[in-house]
Design goal:
485 residues, alpha/beta, Rossmann fold, 2 domains, 12 helices
């Protein structure tokens, strides 16, 4: 049984994606967000009470008719606010207003509320820009297998596929380059990552009424705190090792000396009939984790999670749209796994323009059968039996596009480091273009819907060097011309 097979009688017709029975997200139109509604983190910490009114008019009346009582809070804190307890809703800037993060509310409603129909009704009000159930992303199709004693030469084949050794000879990475890892959390004391993790955060907030009968919540699922520890899943640790492992009992991370801000946005759960724990992430928790990673200084964000577009109701807003726009507006480079259903479809956030969607290849250099295809896929990277870190102080072999994406994130970290070393800024579009242009051809020629080829980190760095040298030459010519004048 997968999470999509669980009954959701509160959903709108045609909605096959699991969503919470007690929560929804409402984005108000520009200029319509009431100043008194507090930020959810202040509510969780007891610094402010949740608001029991939004507009005193049509919005309150409709929610009251369908839900009775409700509690509302802003999902995101203001990035440049005062920073004092209870003041998270003060000081939103123009970027936060324009992208919608300043205007997004999370609502708690009683169990039994018809959440889907309520969202459809709210979306008809002029003061409401969009309303959506609080969808759930889940990672049950990634395969994680314990690797208790890796061999000294184990794992190098996948790194050779992306030419990691040659890339590190050009650029070893920079500890000033920070990757935001939005995932299931990490093990802070792992020997491979002892110097890698910066202070992170845990945005997971689940209540017992949030999940269907038969889903077992594991470990911390309600604390809003600075401890992104994962004791059950290992998904985030799999990504972390590919990006920034120290290289003691496995190959070094492709990102070299980069650092990671770990953001735990996926809770640990056990699904009915299953024994292994999986990561389950509320749309609100994942969006808050991405937003915090941006505000804490991440230049690159790895997002190995997703929601299948085909599972959403036809009129439902696409997940993560506002926080993706916000991160891009702040200059972040966004990397996402394409998905693991093996079909040509779109997963969000991978399918958004500006996000680098990464599929998976096997050791034969061909796209993996499970890798989701589509015109939005930029390129592929190794995603079958990749040796990496696990929870505790262990290792694992990881399979899935979730573990192809961090190869691209590591390569992006090297490009940013190299560009900074040359005293030049680099933007997300440049990184995307270079990674796609320098990808190696698939071993059997072009593959439909799988991007331009297989990641080649060394070729990407060489191409960046050429562009920087060319730009420097053009600047010197321009300066010389100015002097002659």
């Amino acid at each position: 049984m997968t999470i999509r097979q669980l009954a959701t009688p509160w959903a709108a017709p045609g909605d096959r994606q699991y969503s919470l029975p007690t929560s929804l997200l409402v984005k108000l139109a520009l200029g319509e967000a009431p100043e008194q509604v507090p930020a959810v983190r202040d509510v969780v910490r007891g610094a402010q009470p949740a608001s029991r009114s939004i507009d005193g008019g049509a919005i309150d009346r409709i929610i009251g008719e369908k839900a009775g009582v409700f509690r509302a809070a802003r999902l995101f804190n203001a990035a440049g606010g005062p920073g004092r307890p209870g003041c998270g809703h003060i000081g939103y800037d123009s970027v936060e207003q324009a992208t919608g993060v300043a205007r997004t509310l999370i609502l708690r409603v009683p169990s039994g509320t018809p959440v889907g129909p309520l969202c459809e009704t709210l979306a008809q009000i002029p003061a409401v820009e969009s309303a959506s159930p609080n969808y759930v992303s889940v990672t049950p199709f990634d395969l994680l297998t314990s690797a208790s004693a890796p061999k000294a030469d184990d794992g190098w084949a996948t790194r050779q596929q992306v030419r990691m050794a040659e890339a590190h000879a050009i650029e070893p990475g920079d500890d000033g380059v920070v990757v935001g890892l939005v995932d299931s959390g990490i093990s802070k004391r792992h020997v491979e990552l002892a110097r890698t993790f910066r202070a992170g955060f845990d945005t997971v907030r689940l209540e017992s009424a949030d999940v269907a009968p038969g889903i077992e919540l594991l470990g911390d699922h309600s604390l809003d705190d600075g401890n992104p520890e994962d004791r059950f899943v290992g998904h985030g640790m799999g990504c972390a090792g590919i990006i920034a492992a120290d290289g003691q009992a496995m190959p070094r991370g492709l990102g070299g000396a980069c650092r990671i801000i770990p953001m735990r946005g996926l809770a640990a759960v056990r699904l009915p009939g299953k024994t292994a724990a999986v990561g389950l992430g509320l749309l609100s928790d994942l969006d808050l984790a991405v937003n915090l990673a941006v505000n804490l200084g991440a230049k690159i964000i790895n997002m190995s999670f997703g929601t299948d577009d085909a599972a959403l109701a036809p009129n439902s807003p696409k997940p993560h749209a506002d926080v993706i726009s916000y991160a891009l507006a702040r200059g972040c480079i966004l990397i996402a796994a394409s998905g693991n259903n093996g079909r040509e479809t779109r997963f969000w956030p991978a399918a958004y323009p500006g996000v680098i969607a990464v599929g998976a290849v096997g050791g034969d250099g061909l796209p993996a059968a499970f890798s989701t295809r589509g015109e939005h896929v930029a390129l592929c990277a190794p995603g079958e039996q990749v040796l990496t870190t696990s929870i505790g102080n262990g290792y694992q072999y990881a399979t899935g596009t979730s573990f192809a994406a961090p190869f691209a994130a590591g390569a992006a970290a090297l490009l940013v480091a190299r560009s900074h070393r040359r005293a030049r800024p680099i933007d997300a579009e440049t990184v995307r273009r270079i990674l796609m242009r320098t990808a190696q051809p698939f071993s059997a020629g072009a593959q439909t819907g799988c991007g331009t080829g297989v990641l080649d980190a060394a070729a990407a760095l060489a191409a960046l060097e050429e562009e920087l040298d060319s730009a420097l030459g053009h600047q010197a010519e321009a300066d010389g011309g100015a002097d002659d004048g």
